[in-house]
Amino acid sequence: MSDTIYALSSGALPAGVAVIRMSGPAVELVLNRLCGVVPEPRKAALKRLVDPVSGDVLDEALVLYFKGPASFTGEDVAELQCHGGRAVVARILDVLSEFEGLRPAEAGEFTRRAFDRGRMDLTEVEGLSDLIAAETEAQRKQAFRQMGGGLGRLYEDWRKRLIHMRAMIEADFDFADEEDVPGSVADQVWDQAEGLIGEVDQHLEQSKSGERLRSGLQVVLMGAPNAGKSSLLNAIAGRDVAIVTEEAGTTRDAIEVHLDLGGYPVTLVDTAGLRETEGRVEQEGIRRAQARGEAADLILWAMEPGGLAPDHSVSGLSADVRQSVPVWIVRTKVDLETLPERDSSGTTLEIPVSCLDKNGLEALIDRLSGFVGEMISVGEAPLATRARHRHFLRDCRAALHHGFTRDDLPGELRAEDLRSAADALGRITGRIDVEDLLDVIFRDFCIGK
Ligand SMILES: Nc1nc2c(c(=O)[nH]1)N(C=O)[C@@H](CNc1ccc(C(=O)N[C@@H](CCC(=O)O)C(=O)O)cc1)CN2
Ligand SMILES: Nc1nc2c(ncn2[C@@H]2O[C@H](COP(=O)(O)OP(=O)(O)OP(=O)(O)O)[C@@H](O)[C@H]2O)c(=O)[nH]1
């Protein structure tokens, strides 16, 4: 029999109300001892909570009981919705810890129980985790849909089709001889497999947006020392996040702010100014700046009047970065000079901004929003949202492709490819052999979820 787990499921204290949740076989006993009755399932009941040992009244709380299996975890579950004071919660948790068979829940353990009882598949679990982490509206929508099973159903549908295809081929072995005749069952099946490869490819392509939406785009501010990077970060964020001084080399470690651009998440990163330096701390800062640049989706290169361009040989971006990451040149401190709006060819090369009088700031933010909207274009179809999904989708595709192209191999071997492809999808939803993945997935959860 499993332990009964308990945890504070609501947020930081003090708070108006705190929710203490428990799940497991001892729940009814605990309720009986704490509030004298087990309330009717799914009906909130206002009860005095009493310490069964000392007889002390602990609090007056709303108590909710869910009789398993009709609960979040599938086990008996109870919630004590008590006053959100630190001492109130501490005392109740302390009293719970004294019960035989009760122990504090580990991160994600309530959800883990729901998964173990087959109430959620892994994509739904991940969706729930993403929902709690969501910071913008578009992230919330994507996570909510995934939590509701949108993505899992797509993979389950593909998996069923693959299992059916394999069954067709295997049934055919019993009748036909090995000759592969045009129009045969095998031919029809491999036609369907080809169609599915196309669907997987399209899904993988569209899912770049799903992953970007989940993790947010990285926009990295780079440039020479004193170019105005930290001022720009503060101006875009609308608050003082980074330290601004007239001293070159102020920013050492990368500083991040999370922005919500029209519902899309962006992490804006301020980095150390690039220059030759003897200072060890500053050197490390510069190394980190280049590393952040390499991982960026977009670099904003801050360039003050008379400042250095990104292709400067000593204090510029590495050739690797310049090739793989789009770079926008932001002309900073334009209050100090008047700039020609266009170069000789007539294109606008530089984005002029002043953090002093805020000129150009809105135009820069609008351009950023447009860029982000293009990079993250999500429609109605459910998208993969994690490297884990992409990994197994590629396995699935590779197996399908192998079976489809190797018509020189015996039918049994090609049928085996259909099985591998189906299994790869089963690993995404957690229907197949994922024990080794679970700890990693649940580790990211909060306690009490
Ligand atoms: N107070 C409270 N609020 C909460 C949760 C919770 O656990 N407690 N949730 C936790 O994440 C979310 C709601 N999710 C839930 C999902 C399933 C069930 C549940 O009891 N399911 C049963 C009965 C379904 C029904 O009657 O329709 C079942 O699926 O069998 C409860 C909450 C968000 N708000
Ligand atoms: N006139 C004017 N001065 C600015 C503007 N933006 C920044 N400055 C000044 O330029 C100096 C350097 O600004 P920072 O934002 O610290 O520059 P940084 O690029 O982050 O510098 P490091 O952290 O040293 O790499 C400060 O004295 C700012 O007040 C601007 O738009 N106009």
Automatic annotation (TrEMBL):
Coiled-coil ranges (or none): none
Cofactor binding note: Binds 1 potassium ion per subunit.
Gene3D superfamilies the record matches: P-loop containing nucleotide triphosphate hydrolases, Probable tRNA modification gtpase trme, domain 1, tRNA modification GTPase MnmE domain 2
Annotated positions binding GTP: 226-231, 245-251, 270-273
Cofactor dependency: K(+)
UniProt keyword annotations, A-Z: Cytoplasm, GTP-binding, Hydrolase, Magnesium, Metal-binding, Nucleotide-binding, Potassium, tRNA processing
Record keyword rRNA processing present: no
Residue numbers binding Mg(2+): S230, T251
Binding site for (6S)-5-formyl-5,6,7,8-tetrahydrofolate: R21, E79, R119, K449
EC identifiers of the protein: 3.6.-.-
Domain TrmE-type G intervals: 216-373
Enzyme class: hydrolase
Cell location: Cytoplasm
Known function: Exhibits a very high intrinsic GTPase hydrolysis rate. Involved in the addition of a carboxymethylaminomethyl (cmnm) group at the wobble position (U34) of certain tRNAs, forming tRNA-cmnm(5)s(2)U34.
PANTHER family attached to this UniProt entry: TRNA MODIFICATION GTPASE GTPBP3, TRNA MODIFICATION GTPASE GTPBP3, MITOCHONDRIAL
Family as reported in the entry's similarity comment: Belongs to the TRAFAC class TrmE-Era-EngA-EngB-Septin-like GTPase superfamily. TrmE GTPase family.
Quaternary data: Homodimer. Heterotetramer of two MnmE and two MnmG subunits.
Name of this chain's protein: tRNA modification GTPase MnmE
